[in-house]
Amino acid sequence: MIKKAIVLLTAALTLLSVFMVSPLKALAYDELKNTDPDKYYILLDLKNQIVTVFERDENGEYTKIVRRFICTTGRTELNPEDPEDKGTPTPQGIWKIGARERFGEFAAFDGTYARYWTQIVEGVYFHSVMYSRHDVNTLQSGPYRRLGNKGSHGCVRLDVEDAKWLYYYACPGTTVNVSNGEPFDKTVKSKLKAKRMPFNNYKAFQVNIYDIDELPNPKAWVVKDGAEIRTGNGSNDSVRKRVPAGTELELLQIAETWCKVKFEKREGYMRTAYLTFKQGTMMSREDADIIKTTAYMYSEKSTDAKYRITKVPNYTSVKVLEPDNDGWTKIRYWGEEGYVQSRYLTKGWGVIPEVMTEIMPIASYKEAYSHY
User: Fold this and answer.
1) In 3-state terms, what secondary structure has residue 360?
2) Are residues 193 and 79 in the same domain?
3) Which member of 40, 120, 173, 303 has the lowest number of beta carbons within 10 Å of its beta carbon?
4) Residues 178, 166: Cα–Cα separation, whole Å
């Protein structure tokens, strides 16, 4: 009886703490609670399976811990009986937050859903543990119980309340450092795991983590004939359908490289450069300066790790500030200036950032992308 009372009290206190930072009457899906990409810095610790969110101290350094929670990252244990098994690790490096979706389906895995998606890079997201249907009552027990251990397809699984916090506060452009170089810290991980509820208690609890009704998803129009809708946001993902210019699509996620779209009741991903958010207005061009292979941007013309600023994903449109000079090109990306090796740049279909920002259909996104 005493043990049961303690469990119920713990659940009640956890519920109260979540509502203090994440009230029931949250903003609509298209309204961020923070639009400053520099407000927070996120450390994803692969070794300990911990996410830590920092904000700046009085000296401007990211030392103040805002939130800390356990996670599940990509699988790294290989099948010894399968010589071709490379695992599905979460990609290391420094990235910028991209798209978001409140309650989405995995385009490559029909019938599996998650809440509060926040993109790290390409097909890798922070999101909640999974659901069997678009229904908060179908939370899956296995992923919940395995939090704190590696095992995903690359995404970062979280408790619902933690995924929700990132969804609203980690706006596009926020820096995420995915690191495997942190020291082991069993104490912190044990404390975080000790706060978690048994699955049945949590399943009942998370049903009450909700938002006001979603607004209708915005529309987009295809500007390139034969534009591909793929199962993932990468050029190697399978093509589901090719559509002609002028086709109207429903926007589920928005980012500068890929958008998640819905067409004829099927979901998939399309290059943002093949779309416009305003019918009759081109927000892309065929001869834009784009990154052809994911590359680091450096503060100096050197590949020394100490000069790394962030990774720039392939297909990203960048503004060239100084043309090729000794194998290096100076660019601007998410408000920061730095150098990339010129061999990673090419001309191709890419967005015009100023136009994309101006016609952005989501108000708070427009504010966040003004830093782009």
Assistant:
1) coil
2) yes
3) 303
4) 15
